[in-house]
Amino acid sequence: MSNIPDDLSYTKEHEWVAGLDDGLVVTVGVTAFAAEQLGDVVYVQLPEVGANVERGDSVGEVESTKSVNEIYAPVGGEITEVNQVVVDDPGLVNSDPYGDGWMFKVRVAGDPEDLLSPEEYTALTSGES
Length: 129
Fold this sequence. Notes:
Blueprint: E1 9-10, E2 15-18, E3 25-30, H1 32-38, E4 41-45, E5 52-53, E6 58-64, E7 68-72, E8 77-82, H2 84-88, H3 92-95, E9 104-108, H4 118-125
Antiparallel strand pairs: 1-2, 2-3, 3-9, 4-6, 5-8, 6-7, 8-9
């Protein structure tokens, strides 16, 4: 079972969200569980800075040796930054999903909805929900 940090929020699509309690801009990434399921990540496509997204929008993709998967916006708002380092070195999604493997930052518009607590995400990924 993958490590699930207790200071993040999660989605059913296996994205994590950091910084909800700190202000208007949150950081988004793909969970270690998702990275393990994907296998070796070889390509990452991220949204454009300045793009306005709605919660649930497909905003990019992660390609691995096994499959291609969409990245969804866990919150609505404006993309303020993308992680060029993970585009240049997609393997960071596997080796450091909660650190250098982050994907993008969003200036949140409205109230974030339907995010999971660490406990709820643990239950989801262990098949208990």
